[in-house]
Amino acid sequence: MGRVWHQNAVIYQIDPSRFYDSNGDGWGDIRGIIQKLDYIASLGVTALWLTPFYVSPRRDNGYDVEDHLSIDPRLGEPEDIDWLLAEARKRDMRVIIELVAQHTSDTHYWFQEARKNESGPYRDYYLWSKNGGPDEPRPMFPTVEPHIWRWDDEAQSHYRHLFYHHEPDLNLANPHVLHEVDRILEHWVEKGVAGFRIDAASHMVEQAGNGDKEKGYRFFNHVHALLERHRPELMLLGEVDVNVDEFTHYFGDGDRLTTLLNFWINKNIFLALARENAQPLVTALNELPLPPEHGGYCFWLRNHDELDMEDLSEEDFNFVMDKYAPDENMRIYGRGIRRRLAPMLDGDERHQALAHALLFSLPGTPAVRYGAETGMGDNLSQPERESVRSPMQWNDSPGAGFSTARPARFVSPLITDGPFGYQKINVEEQLAREDSLLHRIRRIAETWRTLPEVCYHHFHPFTVPQQSVFAARYQGEGYATLMFANLSAEPVVVELGELNLQEAVEILADGEYPPVSRELALNGHGYRWLRLR
Question: Signal peptide location in the record (predicted)?
């Protein structure tokens, strides 16, 4: 099978406003990312995923877009994105950006014009109702925005907003809106981006089909065909939090989305970690449909949003929430967790390294959130999802090496206190310590990049008697890779039965181990990868 780059990519997710401030104004920026590209490359990263850097009021971390074609002046100059793309190419890294087209900001020119004139050309860019309507689909942030229809005095009508009231939903069934989306995509492809992370992709289907899902899926056929004419290997990474049975509709015949962000596996990773039992994860993996030849899944531990646990059984949901979010302040929207990984695992570096070894053992593209490599914490004093959006902690100097501005000017507060304060958790400290989490994750990523067979098409999960151990086999041509991860803090000896690994070469491990025979030892939270001819 011929591989495409995104099936063997290591993605690093960056919030440009919170990564590194190059000009001392308290905001991270595009030039800051450029200055840190060598560091990013040293982690084994091959693709950057940038959260929105467009002109925006930034009431929703930039997902409330005011101008899809321009860079927010707080984040850089127009030419900075060209510079970033050129510098990334020099390091064999690609750049993925966000397509946010399910909604816009209410300050967008289109919406301002739509409000003014019921018969004007922009009115039908959005979804309106004189009398409002039922809250169907359900609001995305029910504890904050309980309704999806909002009265607008100027328009003398209600407009729909699945997300915040300042993010009106676009009418993607309108061919003029579709033309605008095409223009946005073509603009950034011509700049040289390697792909798009498509925000709220499943909601776009509903809007593009005007309730007819089959018609809505064809929106992605259109996008795929448009972009294939420009760059056939572009990544279309869809935010698709739907039932597993619907995944095939988003892939189509390899002519819709190329890659699905896999929320179902994300939930089951944490269920498996919480129960110290690999079976929920294996079961969930076995439920996934086979992606098209050049498609796949993207897996992650934490990103910029809440950790959504809905769709688990009530018993499993309560178990995970009680273990990882015991306090009400750690929970959000009645469905999720607003913590970073490190505090959920009590700051234990070995446990975090195990979680990343597990992530890289899964049959797809791994994505790592900035700061996860150092064990950055969260800031629960901040509202909603802002808790997991703290500035990057580079060193223990004032400002954490993020910015030379006064902290009062920072885009959001630093973590200054407790075990996750920047004085203790920072890149400089981790780089200096050979057994640090950063070095462990770097070794995991670098080893993974040497294993082109790790994808869903070559994935063969198998079970071992020890329920805490996740085991996977990837079969290449003439060789295989076996990966083991112990989800328990207790050491185990894995009984391999008829599987004889005496000829196997160990390519990654969390520590020193005796040679493998018909048994395989694993430390508590240990992991081992073996190469077998």
Answer: none
Element (H, E) at 485: strand 480-486
Per-residue pLDDT band at 461 (split at 50, 70, 90): confident
Name the DSSP class of 138: P
Alpha carbon 532 to chain centroid distance? Answer: 32
Which residue carries 């329920």 as its tokens?
A: 467
Annotation says 384 is catalytic = no
Q: Please, are residues 494 and 466 in contact by the beta-carbon 8 Å criterion?
A: yes
CA distances from 33 to 57, 78, 83, 186, 417 (A): 21, 15, 11, 24, 26
Distance (Å, rounded) from C-alpha 458 to C-alpha 45?
Answer: 22
Paired sense of beta strands 296-300 and 157-160, if any: unpaired
- Tokens representing residue 84 in the block: 């970033």
SS3 183: helix
**Residue 472 pairs with which residues in a beta bridge?**
461, 483
Instruction: Give the E-state strand segments of 142-204 in sequence order.
Output: 149-152, 157-160, 195-198
- Tokens 């011929």 sit on residue: 2
Residue 515 half-sphere exposure, CB side, CA atoms within 13 Å?
7
Give the alpha-carbon dihedral of 52, 247, 355, 5, to 10 degrees: -60
The residue annotated as part of the active site, out of 106, 145, 239, 305, is 239
DSSP state for residue 114 in the 8-state scheme: H
pLDDT at 2: 67
Q: ∠ at Cα 231 (229, 232), nearest 5°? A: 80
Element (H, E) at 11: strand 11-14
Q: What is the pTM of this model?
A: 0.98
* CA nearest to 30, candidates 17, 47, 46, 41: 17
Pairing of strands 128-129, 157-160: antiparallel
Q: Contact at 8 Å (CB) between 158 and 149?
A: yes
Helix axis angle, 175-191 to 80-90, nearest 10°: 50
Q: Which of 145, 169, 199, 349 is catalytic?
A: 199
239 is catalytic: yes
| Rounded distance between C-alpha atoms, residue 268 and residue 321, angstroms | 13
Residues 224, 229: Cα–Cα separation, whole Å: 9
- Token reading at 366: 């791994």
At 277-295, the pLDDT tens digits run: 999 999 999 999 999 999 9
> Could you give the CA distance from residue 237 to residue 257 in angstroms, rounded to a whole number?
7
Q: Which residues pair with 236 in a beta bridge?
A: 196
Task: State the Cα angle at 54 between 226 and 412, rounded to 5°.
Answer: 140
Q: How far apart are CA 311 and CA 326, in angstroms?
A: 19
User: Which residue shows structure tokens 């302040």?
Assistant: 329
Distances (CA, A) of 481 to 268, 324, 435, 448, 473: 23, 32, 24, 10, 6
